[in-house]
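Write out the 3D structure for:
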Amino acid sequence: MKWDDLNVLMAPNFERGHLTIHEQEALFRKGLEDELARATAHVRAPMGSAQPHAGLHRIMEAAYRIVARVPHDAATIQFETIEAETDETWTGEETLLLWKTLKLLVTPMSVSQNEAKEAIEQLGGPLNEGAIREARSQILHGYAEAHRRSTFLDSEEVNASGRGVMALLDDAIIGRACAAHNKPQAPSPPVPETAAATISPGNHPMPESIYAFPSDLRFSEVMHKVLAELAEEKGWAKDNGQREAVCERAAWICGDKPLRDWSAADAKYFAKTVAKFPNDFKWGKLGVSGAMAVPFDEKDIPSNEGKERNARTINRDLSILQNVSRRLAKTHWRLKYSKDIEVDFLAYTITVVDDQEDPDRMPWTPKHLKVLYSLPLWQGGGGNIARLKPSKRPIIYMDAAYWLPLIATYTGLCREEGAGLEVDDFNFDCEVPYLVVKKNELRRLKNNSRARVMPLHPELLELGLQRYVEAIAREQKHVPGLCTPVFPELWCDDAKYHGGGEKVPSFGGRRFYAIAWRYIADATHGVMPLPETRDGKKADFHSQRTYNQSVLAAPDVADKLLAMHMGHAREGTGPKKYDRRALALGEVKELRERLVIMVREMPIVTAHIPRQKKVQLLHIRHRSRVGSAPGRDAQRKFCE
């Protein structure tokens, strides 16, 4: 089912407020080509200045970068803005000429808002204020790049191409020219003193590094140590190698060169290049296997048509790399004369504006949830690895497979939050029964706002949630105050192996997905195809949060109450105050108000689930191991 087919309450259509990577590059190239003709006019008609051409290009490059930093209608340019584009290598004469250039030649109106708008119109892009501002910046940066490239016009690489000015449009040629320019020169052999006196000291200088401690170590040689230090310092949870994989991609794409040779251009190149890869690309292991076993060649990037990488995924990668860059900025990437971060990955993050016509994640619909809860797992089926299959002697077992989806449906908890609930998180002996979402020994929370108190929907109580929690407390010999998982099969070592010796993923939500959820979602899809986005991403467990926000976002529901339900950032009393004492003093009123809204707005999608008077528990090794539905093979052909 596509988004266009869904009949859900939606806000009016909003135009995206950002440019795509392809639009950004097209505008940048437009600026580059337009300005290159002007920047190289001296080849035919000399500029008529005592300044070397390279010096003038440097001034023009800086001027365009400066005006790109300010609005198109800026009346003045602050000194700090100009200072950000110059350093101690600028002479007094150059600085004075830059000021004059900004006053007479290059101004904020060098690219007007109307010019930027017309450029976007030609590409068919969005015509809102944010996109126009971004387009103007890209064109101006293209102007600046034209002057940077013009300094290579007389380089060996450009001359060897035989293409003259046109060679300056070739990224590969410019890359080689830039690398040759930055390559350290071999030390000259000793010469007689009389001969040395005739050699100009500036003929063959050793390029001076911008870093205080230039290192010949490669990025791949330091990234593991840096990630380990960051994990210890920030208390990062294990991520199944995701951060290491992102760093390997950066090393691969940028050539895994010595740290001394990295610059801001590498961050930009990575951001632009990684966006060209399809979202299902198999990266492999750097220098070992797959695509990354051999050096990177941009010509080998497969087409990403219909498989564009999500902007949020790219931003996640850039955020990971920025953490590494910040750490290296204290050592190998520490600048000599500034405290700034040279390799600034976050400078190239993509502005993400939710497109309500094409969301990143589809919510479940009430019809789909009713189908899900019509599966034998909730209606009565077989036992171990046969929970989704009809049985001549049907029985309903309770465990994470049974309860986690139900709790998510009526509370909006994400998978890890639900998997990490403990017995003491539930309080049934009060006017408004509730559960507490808090950091505990089992798992952390995404952020402080995710710590919250959730009133329990009457459907959860009628289905026997209290009896289940009490049964687990008895089975696990729970001691109040100590951590006892309410879904022990997701955490204990005894349940890591199936009776036949099959090992499952570590703990918590990941184990739940491996042994239960993928089979449940696949079985539901077999009955009614799951909702999916336009790029084919199907509704998943997290889509229950999207469902909760959708059904509760009624016009008369206060934003504060919705934020408290979802665990979004909010003002006011923090959830840490919701303990039994606080409830006794009157906080129960707010819980009751939220419960009234939940009951009023949430569709009942579980009325057809049989109510159980007795809690049936499988052996802990067999719990939540549901197996595939009849005729399905979720392990090999998930949701096909």
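The radius of gyration is 31 Å.
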